[in-house]
Amino acid sequence: MSLTTLLPGRLGFGTAPLGNMFRAIPEEEAQATLRAAWDQGIRYFDSAPFYGAGLAEIRLGEMLAQHPRDSFVLSTKVGRIIHDEAEAPSGRDLGEKGGLFEHGRPNKVTDDYSADATKRSIEDSLRRLNTDRLDIVWVHDIAQDFHGDRWLAQFETARTGAFRVLDDLRDQGVIKAWGLGVNRVEPVELTLALDEPRPDGFLLAGRYTLLDHRQALQRLLPAAQEQGVDMVVGGPYSSGVLAGGTHFEYQKAPADIVEKVRRINGLAERYGVTVKAAALQFSLAHPAAAAVIPGATRPSRIAEDLAALREEIPTDFWDELRAAGLLDPAAP
After folding, report:
1. How far apart are CA 325 and CA 179, in angstroms?
2. 21-52 as b/e, with b when 16 or more CB fall inside 10 Å?
3. What is the pTM of this model?
């Protein structure tokens, strides 16, 4: 199914921050943020077992249980199993993303893209999310940033395991769509090159933003368009650095990124444009983009995101970004 047809709007809500990413978020604050998203019309919510070892799913499930199941679209992910036994979150091997959810639940997390683990992961997510069905399932993080040199072996396990299970579930009508949810373009390119199974779309986090979009533009997005595969854009604020934060790629932003953001901010101020508006509208401007899903941990952020989508941005602003080398000339 086309994601554009399935999704209820162009702005969704990504729940990764509600898994206690970077800080411990009080339960009341998390629920107030989710309520604000709902009250202001957000009807697509994305989560994952990995986000705080199930914490984000549990928090999202508490809010969604108050609403009719047919009134929203829900996606989560497979590829990791959350166990009952405990481990130190700070000691998890997360490749380039070390310490990402060290404030989350202490449940042990293991990577597993096999068929049996995929079925178990879905059953566990349904329980945490307080729901009887999922609309979209993404295969999570089968890429270099988490698995290093082992990523191709993990991909092969997913190809013969998770991919086929999800393909069957979609064909049976149990889910409506599936694809990859990753922070790198290579696994999506590899999947699009397969004869089967066939994904419906992909969730690409951090790779189609104002700060980082050239690689996706070169091959991935043209191939996706050719095959009619849609994109959900995750991480439109590049882990927060485009929204006034200090993180890029879930770590402290390096000096070159800080300088690039400073230049973008300077142009935005000159044109009276908010960087949030530029970030969201840039990510949605590509014809392959079906939706964008920024995350939030404070209720006020939802209104900011909605206002950013409505903001008028002068064409001259984009032209000057291109002239300054801050925007790829091919970017729509």
Report:
1. 32
2. bbeebeeeebbbbbebbbeeebbbbbbbbbbb
3. 0.95
**For residue 221, what are the contacts with CB-CB under 8 A and spacing of at least 6?**
208, 231, 286, 288
Contact 176, 1 (CB under 8 A): yes
Instruction: Please name the residue that has the structure tokens 């270099």.
Output: 144
Environment class of residue 59 by beta-carbon count within 10 Å: exposed (0-12), middle (13-18) or buried (19+)?
Answer: buried
CA-closest candidate to residue 35, choices 18, 49, 23, 21? 18
Only one residue has tokens 């290579």, namely 186
- pLDDT tens across the length of the chain (332 residues): 789 999 999 999 999 999 999 899 999 999 999 999 999 999 999 999 999 999 999 999 999 999 999 999 999 999 999 999 998 887 787 777 667 898 999 999 999 999 999 999 999 999 999 999 999 999 999 999 999 999 999 999 999 999 999 999 999 999 999 999 999 999 999 999 999 999 999 999 999 999 999 999 999 999 999 999 999 999 999 988 998 888 888 888 899 999 999 999 999 999 999 999 999 999 999 999 999 999 999 999 999 999 999 999 999 999 999 999 999 999 99
**Catalytic residue IDs:** 46, 51, 77
Find the length of the chain: 332
Contact by Cβ (8 Å): 231, 221: yes
- What tokens appear for 259 in the block? 């300088």
| Bridge partners (DSSP) listed for residue 45 | 13, 74
**DSSP states of 104-155:** S--EEEEE--SHHHHHHHHHHHHHHTT-S--SEEEEE--SHHHHGGGHHHHH
For 289, the 3-state DSSP assignment is strand
Dihedral (Cα; 248, 52, 125, 69), 10-degree rounding: -70
